[in-house]
């Protein structure tokens, strides 16, 4: 079953590569429960099929980086980019893209969360295994308020400008 507007997102563990050690977060991969991360927050979420892939690196993530301040000015607490990659890859991709804390680069390494969302995409035929469908969403306190699902790997409705316009 695919998640829809009005549904609460399922809980799962996402992992983030932390570049600078802080109280409560050690340097390197740190695991977080989605339920904890979304509690009391408004999240602008983009999910992509893969780090370092052409559309994701050249268009999708850069749009969220460019509009992160505008999204936050409209009440978004955090901007997330989720992909079925390991946290080391997501950390390296974030460094490569110059994320600098504007977007949380969250790894769903085994596709646990995207499967629970019903938004997994089997790209085994292309040698890429199970990935996430490309989508964007606004989550308020863990509930889906807006959801923009792409067909295949297209980028037509899940871009940052579309999500900004929905706020």
TrEMBL record:
Top-level EC class as recorded in UniProt: oxidoreductase
Enzyme Commission number(s): 1.11.1.27
The keyword Ligase appears for this protein: no
Active site, renumbered: 56
Catalytic activity reported: a hydroperoxide + 2 glutathione = an alcohol + glutathione disulfide + H2O
Molecular-function annotations in GO: thioredoxin peroxidase activity
UniProt keyword annotation of Oxidoreductase present: yes
InterPro entries linked: PRX5-like (IPR037944), Redoxin (IPR013740), Thioredoxin-like_sf (IPR036249), Thioredoxin_domain (IPR013766)
Entry keyword set: Antioxidant, Oxidoreductase, Peroxidase, Redox-active center
Any one of the GO BP annotations: hydrogen peroxide catabolic process
Domain Thioredoxin residues, every copy: 3-167
Pfam families reported in the protein's UniProt record: Redoxin
Cellular component terms per the entry's GO annotation: cytoplasm
Biological role stated in the UniProt entry: Thiol-specific peroxidase that catalyzes the reduction of hydrogen peroxide and organic hydroperoxides to water and alcohols, respectively. Plays a role in cell protection against oxidative stress by detoxifying peroxides.
Protein family per UniProt: Belongs to the peroxiredoxin family. Prx5 subfamily.
Protein name: Glutathione-dependent peroxiredoxin
């Amino acid at each position: 079953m695919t998640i829809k507007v009005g549904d609460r997102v399922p809980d799962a563990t996402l992992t983030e590569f932390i570049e600078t050690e802080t109280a409560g977060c050690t340097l390197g991969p740190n695991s977080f429960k989605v339920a904890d991360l979304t509690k009391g927050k408004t999240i602008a979420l983009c999910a992509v099929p893969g780090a370092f892939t052409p559309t994701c690196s050249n268009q999708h993530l850069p749009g969220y980086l460019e509009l992160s301040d505008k999204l936050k000015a409209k009440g978004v607490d955090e901007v997330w980019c989720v992909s079925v990659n390991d946290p080391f890859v997501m950390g390296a991709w974030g460094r490569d893209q110059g994320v600098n804390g504007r977007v949380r680069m969250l790894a769903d390494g085994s596709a646990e969360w995207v499967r629970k969302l019903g938004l997994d995409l089997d790209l085994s035929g292309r040698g890429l295994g199970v990935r996430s469908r490309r989508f964007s969403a606004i989550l308020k306190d863990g509930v889906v308020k807006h959801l923009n699902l792409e067909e295949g790997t297209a980028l037509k409705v899940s871009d940052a400008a579309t999500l900004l316009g929905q706020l």
